[in-house]
């Protein structure tokens, strides 16, 4: 009770509301949750987040069972790259990518030049993350992150993300009611986690808001700045699909290799997908066989690993690269 006495009456109400959402919570669990929230509150205030921001944000949180279930869900089967690729780089998405480029041409070219990231890669990430901003997630970021931070599988990570989300609200970059995202707290059209938002989100139109939810300039600039900050080299591309002779394929039981020069790969018989010779270059490339030695093969450059900094999945990074080639203008 001593702990509760320290809290404001408004805060009592919020704790009461939170308790309502725990259907099968025993008294001990409720008490644990209340202690957890009050510790979080102290930590947030110590970090400079105002009491007002914290109480407003946490006043209406809902512990989302759906989020907890999604976090626990194991993939039903391992999807092949070919299946993933069909889903993520289909003709419709390529066509819309070209249309979106024409629609936002001036802005996206300005941003590409300013940040040093080719426009087609900004478009491809936008296209694969949120289908060009058409599905950005409708979960309350604060509720999702609280659900994951309290007793979740990756509680510490999500607790830090929750504190960062509170800082974003405290700085007034976005209103609480507009702070929506995926079930795991990835926000807006660029799907930034709160920590990435604080570090990389851009206010391209200088209106004082880093609005990755609704402002296209801010969305494109944020994606570009993220890539540039992780080592993007605009004089290079991401990689390419290649043809690998069978005898060479058999040597590669692993999906990943050490980097070698294009000349090296060419000398052992790897060709461009159209059968032409690879450039006789010292450019380092890794051979990637996402479906082992039975599927497509790719040689990838340094920028490929920068795309993986955006999302660590190899399938994702390959698809971003391929989509960027298909919407090339
Ligand atoms: Ca802005």
Secondary structure: elements and pairs:
Layout: H1 2-5, H2 9-20, H3 27-46, H4 51-59, H5 65-72, H6 81-88, H7 91-103, H8 105-115, H9 119-130, E1 139-140, H10 141-149, H11 155-170, E2 180-181, H12 194-200, H13 216-229, E3 239-243, H14 246-249, E4 260-261, H15 262-267, E5 271-272, E6 284-288, E7 297-300, H16 302-310, H17 314-326
Antiparallel strand pairs: 1-2, 3-5, 3-7, 4-6, 6-7
Helix pairs in contact: 6-17, 7-9, 8-13, 9-13, 9-17, 10-11, 11-12, 16-17
Architecture overview:
The chain is α+β, with helices and mostly antiparallel strands. The protein has a domain at 239-300. It is built from 17 helices and seven strands. The strands form two sheets. It has a five-stranded antiparallel sheet with strand order 4-6-7-3-5. A two-stranded antiparallel sheet has the order 1-2. The longest helix has 20 residues, at 27-46. The chain is globular and about 65 Å long. Mean pLDDT is 89; it is low at 1-17. Calcium ion is lined by residues 203, 205, 207, 209, 211, 215, 218.
